[in-house]
Amino acid sequence: MKPLVSIITPMYNSEAFISETISSVLNQTYTNWELILIDDCSTDNTIAVASTFQLKNKNIHLLKNTKNAGAAISRNKGINVANGDYIAFLDADDLWKPIKLETQICFMQTHNCDVCYSSYEQINDKGKPLNKFVKALPILSYSRLLKSNYIGNLTGIYNTKVLGKINAPNLRKRQDWLLWLKAVEVSRKPAQGIQESLAYYRVRKNAMSSNKINLLKHNYNVYRKGLSFSTPKSIYFMFQFLFEHFLVKSKQVKTINKK
Fold it and tell me: Does 259 reside within a domain?
């Protein structure tokens, strides 16, 4: 039997997107999965929409927070109840291509890979292509990942049978980066990137990356609070991040030529 993949999806006021996101999981060519939806006290119809899918699919599970707790606690709640040999992440507004899981699980088994991710494309709020392709690095060491987050969370998968369950630290932002750093550290092997685009990342108008000041603040917190670096060490790595993010990582984003 094929290994089970647990998919973790936190939700908060995701009514406009969650139906399409769940459908992209249902359309996977790889069928041995469980989808764990965690609602973080949504005030719209997110739960109602998600419940319609849950009632029809026994491998979809819906958890509800008793108070708004943020993405980290929601993800960890899903991770803690997951039964999978692999854990994957899909935010409530992003989408997977149908071959996503099949391609990655096959790759991980073939290459003895503990942490895997892929290239992805960007879409807007309406689901329209932005003609942007974010290319995955083929090999990603811990030291390189420490400089900037090169793993698109919607593409990341890790092997729980080898690494155990790895939780996200309780930071309101950028906790996914810390999770992947921990996964690569525990693995003691580089993460491996699939060059093929396997997902669609939705660029929202209020996305953190659009606000450069907030981006810098939250990334500093990764070093200072998430990794407990000293202030001088955190500042040093912030300079590393600035160079890597704006002069190196930005070159990963390619414009797709329209036909």
Answer: no
Rounded Cα–Cα distance for residues 53 and 58 (Å): 9
Q: Which domain holds residue 145?
A: 5-207
Q: Structure pTM?
A: 0.94
23 Cβ partners below 8 Å, 6+ apart?
Answer: none
Read off the pLDDT of residues 116-142 as tens digits, 9 standing for 90 and up: 999 999 999 999 999 999 999 999 999
139 domain residue, yes or no:
yes
Query: Is 226 within the bounds of a domain?
Result: no
| Structural domain count of the chain | 1
- CB burial of 192-219 (b: ≥16 within 10 Å; e: otherwise) equals bbbeebbbbbbeeeeeeeeeeeebeebb
**13-56, pLDDT tens digit by residue?**
999 999 999 999 999 999 999 999 999 999 999 999 999 999 99
